[in-house]
Amino acid sequence: MPLLSRFTTLRSTALRRMFAPTRVLLFSLLAATGAEAEPRKTIHQPHGWYNYFGDHPIGDSRWGLHLEGQWRRHDVVLRGQQLLLRPAINFDVNKNLQLSAGYALARSYRYGEAPIAAGNDEHRIWQQALLRYPQGKLRWSTRIRFEERFLERIGREPHQDKYRHENRLRLMQQVRIPLQGKTYVTAYNEYWTYVKPYVSRSSFDQNRAYAAVGWQLNPHWRVETGYMHQAILQRSGSVLESNHTVMVSLFSSAPFGK
Q: Which fold has domain 2-252?
């Protein structure tokens, strides 16, 4: 009987691990669908994002540096949307779990049919856990990121601080499937929600759905090009941005200190 009980427990644990990525993805999709169900104006806009993502191990240690820059453009390339710089420190707990903490600067510009009141800067402190699930040739991962945001006040009163504080939670589920040679396909869905304190009529911020083709250039460098649909609910709750985005990204895992 103890042997049967142990087998049942192990089987239950294995099934939970196998279907954990699917549960997270379904939750994200259902949450995003519910957020878009209310009547509001939807505007469609073309964007282009050009990115660098570097996760660089430091020698043979478990520590590493994350270096990231994103040049985000409205009308694919013609007008500014946002400049994002995001450095961090990584720590590999084991081969399936990486923890990170860092800083981000987001400089936003006015764009599109329903622009923000004025361009502004945002400073973020953020922490995340990246979980990887061995699934044969498939590469599943879940990313949980929490952000403490300090947003520049536009037209603030003399007694107000220059920045106001908000929190945000981001949940992403990604899969990567190898094809022939050095080619692969990948897809993810990421759901964003405000966490108190925040200033918005809804706790829903945005949802991103992405699909791309990638090429492994060598063991430490790869490039992806794809499409991302970004659904942003503006803080008034009356405008939903449906942003159709071309994505071109360069990734590096080249180690430092070797």
A: Porin (2.40.160)
